[in-house]
């Protein structure tokens, strides 16, 4: 199977999912859910066999059961990323009654997306299809498949996607959600003291803060998410399949990761925080510019109502 067929989204062919699940009953249940969702499923009960099989079948996506005490799924994800880079979407299946598993995957799971074992088949299939379509769109744009020439996709300072590409991805995800159902969210953020750093320490130090912010965001998001720099000191993320109900957890996770990192100025650690804002589709509808503007407005309001412990507003969307 060629990479173009597998990741370019050619119509009429079932995408292949490698399913790694040690529990026989859960393996069969999830296999049936994925099959109903239009996937060809290759089931596997052993994590140590996942990497060799991955190299043989080159799946379109991988779903792994994440559970204690060893959390072998996380170690397996590290190996699969070495083999497949970022071209293959990965997904953890986590028992909602195991908070330790959720915490472990959130903190050490390589920023791979999670889904509850109790999720419906339609929701599981929708999440995977969404990730595959987004990945295919990114690859097509990067290869210039839509225009015949390579597009300028990235911000030269931070290496993140630029605003033009980000808006195109919001437009595509809107069309997908309108056609197939589901939703997505747009998150905006900015370093709380960016202007003060630039004024006091100069443009070079301000640029360092922007790069620092970009690195932290890149370490926080899932493979299916799109992160961009949308203005001088502002960033945005598009989160496919993430509903409004999940946003408080997402915002707290992003803010906590930013707090854990340390930005140094002249040998001293500068405590920085993020202003955050978010809106979700279809709660907010409209053109990509409307969604981004609404998220930026929520973020700017956080200057007035941010939480004092880590400097981020709790946005209700």
TrEMBL record:
It catalyses: 2 GTP = 3',3'-c-di-GMP + 2 diphosphate. Its EC number is 2.7.7.65. One of its GO terms (molecular function) is diguanylate cyclase activity. PANTHER family: DIGUANYLATE CYCLASE DGCM-RELATED, REGULATORY COMPONENTS OF SENSORY TRANSDUCTION SYSTEM. Gene3D superfamilies: 3.30.70.270, 3.40.50.2300. This is diguanylate cyclase. InterPro entries: CheY-like_superfamily (IPR011006), Diguanylate_Cyclase (IPR050469), GGDEF_dom (IPR000160), Nucleotide_cyclase (IPR029787), Rev_trsase/Diguanyl_cyclase (IPR043128), Sig_transdc_resp-reg_receiver (IPR001789). SMART domains: GGDEF. Residues 16-132 form the Response regulatory domain. It is an enzyme of class 2 (transferase). NCBIfam families: GGDEF. Keywords: Nucleotidyltransferase, Transferase. Residues 182-317 form the GGDEF domain. Coiled coil: none annotated. It holds the Pfam family GGDEF.
């Amino acid at each position: 199977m060629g990479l173009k067929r597998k990741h370019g989204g050619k119509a009429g062919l079932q995408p292949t999912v490698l399913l790694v699940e040690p529990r026989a009953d859960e393996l069969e249940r999830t296999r049936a859910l994925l099959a109903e969702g239009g996937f060809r499923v290759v089931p596997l009960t052993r994590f140590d066999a996942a990497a060799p099989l991955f190299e043989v079948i080159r799946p379109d996506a991988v779903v792994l059961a994440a559970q204690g005490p060893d959390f072998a799924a996380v170690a397996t994800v590290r190996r699969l990323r070495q083999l497949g880079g970022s071209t293959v979407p990965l997904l953890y299946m986590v028992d909602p009654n195991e908070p330790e598993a959720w915490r472990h995957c959130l903190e050490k799971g390589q920023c791979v997306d999670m889904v509850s074992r109790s999720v419906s088949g339609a929701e599981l299939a929708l999440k995977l299809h969404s990730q595959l379509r987004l990945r295919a769109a990114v690859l097509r744009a990067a290869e210039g498949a839509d225009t015949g020439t390579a597009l300028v996709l990235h911000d030269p300072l931070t290496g993140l996607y630029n605003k033009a590409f980000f808006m195109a991805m919001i437009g595509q995800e809107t069309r997908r959600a309108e056609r197939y159902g589901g939703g997505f969210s747009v998150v905006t953020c900015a370093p709380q003291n960016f202007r003060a750093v630039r004024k006091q320490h100069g443009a070079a130090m301000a640029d360092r803060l922007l790069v620092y912010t970009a690195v932290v965001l890149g370490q926080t998001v899932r493979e299916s998410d799109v992160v961009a720099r949308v203005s001088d000191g502002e960033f945005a993320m598009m989160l496919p399949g993430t509903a409004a109900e999940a946003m408080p957890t997402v915002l707290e996770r992003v803010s906590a990761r930013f707090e854990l990192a340390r930005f140094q100025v002249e040998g001293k650690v500068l405590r920085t925080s993020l202003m955050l804002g978010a809106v979700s589709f279809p709660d907010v509808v409209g053109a990509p510019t409307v969604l981004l503007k609404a998220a930026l407005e929520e973020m700017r309001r956080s200057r007035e109502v941010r939480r004092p412990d880590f400097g981020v507003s709790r946005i209700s969307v």
